[in-house]
Amino acid sequence: MRRTDWKSAFRLRNRRDGLLIGAAIGVGMTAQAAERGGADFLLALNAGRLRVMGAASLAAMLPIQDSNDFTDSFARREILDRVGIPVLFGAFALDHRLDPAAFVDRLAETGYAGIANFPTIIHYDGRFRQALEDAGLGYAREVALLRQAKERGLLTLGYAKSRAEVDMLLEAEIDIVCLNFGWNAGGSRGVLQGLELDEVADRARRVFLHIRGQSPETLCVVEGGPIVSPDQMYRVCHDARADGYLGGSTLDRVPLELSVAETTSAFKTVSLLRGSLDAQTRDELRLSRMSGLVGQSEAMHKVILRLGRLAAGDLPVLVIGEAGAGKTQVARAVRATSRRRYGPLIVYDAASTPAAIEAELFGARDRLQPGTLEKADATILIENIDRLPAPTQLRLVDWLDEAMFERRNGMAESPRARIVCTTTRDLTALAGEGTFREDLRVRLLPGLIEVPPLRERPEDVPLLARSILEALRTPERPGFELDAEGYRILLSHDWPENVRELRSVLESATVTADGSRIRLADLHALIAGEGPSRHITPVGEREWILDALRRNRFRRAETAVFLGISRKTLYNKMKYYDLLP
């Protein structure tokens, strides 16, 4: 395809599919992956090859080897005949041995669609840059090579940083101007930048206005600096009215670093799936099974031990913990592990029906109708005890004192229930406010059980997840699978809503599970609170995509980002489900 044809195609894609995406790469596997992801063109660079060899992109500027032969070698072997999108060659124009006309002819005959000036002198400044310019090894030499390529019919992409460099590219009528903001800041080898995103967007907007004022047909793309994520790219491109983005490290090095690190971490953390119960005694194992509490952390180990000690007596129990941490489960476990006869469990929530609780607990004042506290062997669970009305708190203190007096003096006891209370308030808060009686707090303290939040016991997450998934079994769906990487995703979250949030995420993920396999993309979306999966409903894929299109006013680029898929994949799905206009 001729240069003008490629440029027209890019302009059409820009109008039809949104931003153009170019991938500056150095290995065949990355090239094919970028094409599958929807890249519009590839740029074969020595920096891309050096990155996959373990070096920083900055090494591209060093005299390590013949840059042009190095780039051509891997691009011929691994890229040119293996992708269906245009490949541009990153040419080092400052090689004094270079014959521009012969070099450009060779690139065209080899099958490259275009050429770019990289490595480029724009990454040098100060006295060294000026010395190169004075020696005839400056930016003008790069522009001359691009002009030669343009005359040969190749697509041309020019890197530039300054307004003067941009003007030189415009004079040469270069097809694509890439406004570069320096080496990328992301990943382990990123170069720290002083520029903020707002500064980058504002500068790009002003430069692109200047370009379009002189050459409306020139395509304008951005690259580098603080732009390291799709959201940041979109923000800069939207504010600057850019035609697209050229990604190097952000498309190969940074994702590869993260992917390998995360996958290795998944293999490393799979050992957490094994129950580390060796240190527990038989009594502890028995208590764990009886209580139904799930966990292998030291924190849960202490909770179960505390539960076992309290199970032997009749002390009132106070369970404290954050919302969703599992207080009610621990409270129910008091009844399950108690040595007294297994009686009924009666639950009251002081936060929802505080006025009716007193009559239920203590019965009629004339004692003709006894309250639930007089039920033999019953366990009374009062949730949100700190919301109990003051008169009811006083009567509960009297009732506890009476029971204690009878036990200490060996008097014949009337049948009495056992009190278990829960609260999300810490002891200091309960003591410092006048809404909760100090004498009631003192009487509940001996039976205190503190349930730690899930973020403080991450090693419990895998076992909890397995328990939740097991509980979701149905005759129609016998079980759900979550691999080691899935558990790693769960372990990476701090679970501000604790076990309740974990259960909600897993229940939602099973709705869109592929058979018995939970998809990692759904876990990512649910945990991040992004995308339509957060409030998932059992609808088909067509409705899922249509809903996302409506949310984003049928703008495909934004919809693809919203769904976490490429624009090409979105287009194919829209075509399949007859959603194209």
Strand-helix topology:
Blueprint (H helix, E strand, L loop, with lengths): L2 H15 L2 E6 L2 H9 L4 E4 L1 H7 L14 H12 L8 E5 L8 H11 L3 E4 L8 H9 L4 H13 L3 E6 L2 H9 L4 E5 L16 H18 L4 E5 L6 H11 L3 E4 L5 H17 L12 H10 L6 H14 L5 E4 L6 H11 L7 E5 L4 H9 L16 E5 L6 H19 L9 E6 L3 H6 L5 H7 L3 E3 L10 H11 L12 H8 L6 H14 L8 H9 L12 H11 L4 H8 L3 H10 L5
Parallel strand pairs: 1-2, 1-8, 2-3, 3-4, 4-5, 5-6, 6-7, 7-8, 9-12, 9-13, 10-11, 11-12
Helix pairs in contact: 5-7, 9-10, 11-20, 12-13, 13-14, 19-21, 20-22, 21-22, 23-24, 24-25
Sheet with most strands: strand arrangement? 1-2-3-4-5-6-7-8
Under the CATH scheme, which architecture of the largest domain would be assigned?
Answer: Alpha-Beta Barrel
Total beta strand runs: 13
Shape: elongated
The CATH homologous superfamily of the largest domain is termed Aldolase class I
Task: Write structural notes for this entry.
With about 575 residues, this protein is α/β, with parallel strands linked by helices. It folds into 3 domains: about 5-260, Alpha-Beta Barrel (TIM Barrel), CATH 3.20.20.70; about 280-450, 3-Layer(aba) Sandwich (Rossmann fold), CATH 3.40.50; about 455-575, Helicase, Ruva Protein, domain 3 (Orthogonal Bundle), CATH 1.10.8. It has 25 helices and 13 strands. The chain has helices at about 5-15, 30-35, 45-50, 65-80, 100-110, 125-135, 140-150, 165-170, 195-215, 230-240, 255-270, 280-290, 300-310, 325-335, 355-360, 390-410, 425-430, 440-445, 460-470, 485-490, 500-510, 520-530, 540-550, 555-565, 565-575, and strands at about 20-25, 40-45, 85-90, 115, 155-160, 175-180, 220-225, 245, 315-320, 345-350, 380-385, 420-425, 450. The protein has an 8-stranded parallel beta barrel with strand order 1-2-3-4-5-6-7-8, surrounded by 8 helices. Strands 10-11-12-9-13 form a 5-stranded parallel β-sheet, with helices on one face. Helix 9 links the parallel strand 6 and strand 7. Helix 5 crosses helix 7 (about 140-150), helix 21 (about 500-510) crosses helix 22 (about 520-530) and helix 24 packs across helix 25 (about 565-575). The longest helix is centred in the last third of the chain and has 19 residues, at about 390-410. It is elongated, with a radius of gyration of 34 Å. Mean pLDDT is about 80; it is low at about 185-190, about 275-280 and about 530-540.
